[in-house]
Design brief:
Elements lengths: L14 E3 L4 E3 L2 E3 L1 E4 L5 E3 L3 E4 L5 E4 L4 H7 L4 H16 L4 H16 L8
Antiparallel strand pairs: 1-4, 2-3, 4-5, 6-7
């Protein structure tokens, strides 16, 4: 089955799915995940009742593909706004702004950052 999966939202790694092949006691479900960092998600089993009243496993709807490809852009847009504001504070000099951010992150890594961006 060919499905277009976006790269991992956490590390950017390649995403793959299992073709519905995972099975425990004859139960199958879809899984999609990153081959680099190992994060994954899966669809839940869905059961249906046949005309004769028997229960059987319904084919999963592959909702995990849609969830995997969905992105919340609000955080990215917020970060882009902050970066634009920072560059403007440095007279539209992205190199100076980047140097400031680099120094701030270095201080933060060492627990010495006292200002917030």
């Amino acid at each position: 089955m060919s499905i277009n999966l976006k790269p991992c939202p956490f590390c950017g790694g390649e995403a793959q799915h299992n073709d519905g092949g995972n099975s425990v006691f004859g139960r199958f479900w879809w899984i999609v995940g990153c081959v680099e960092c190992g994060i994954r998600m899966n669809d839940q089993e869905k059961w249906e009742t046949g005309d004769d009243g028997s229960s059987r496993l319904a084919l999963p709807p592959k909702e995990c593909f849609e969830r995997w490809n969905r992105r919340d852009n609000s955080a990215t847009e917020h970060l882009a706004d902050k970066i634009e504001d920072l560059i403007a504070e440095f007279g539209d000099d992205p190199t100076a702004a980047l140097q400031c951010v680099s120094e701030y992150l270095d201080l933060r890594r060492h627990g010495k950052a006292e200002v917030q961006l």
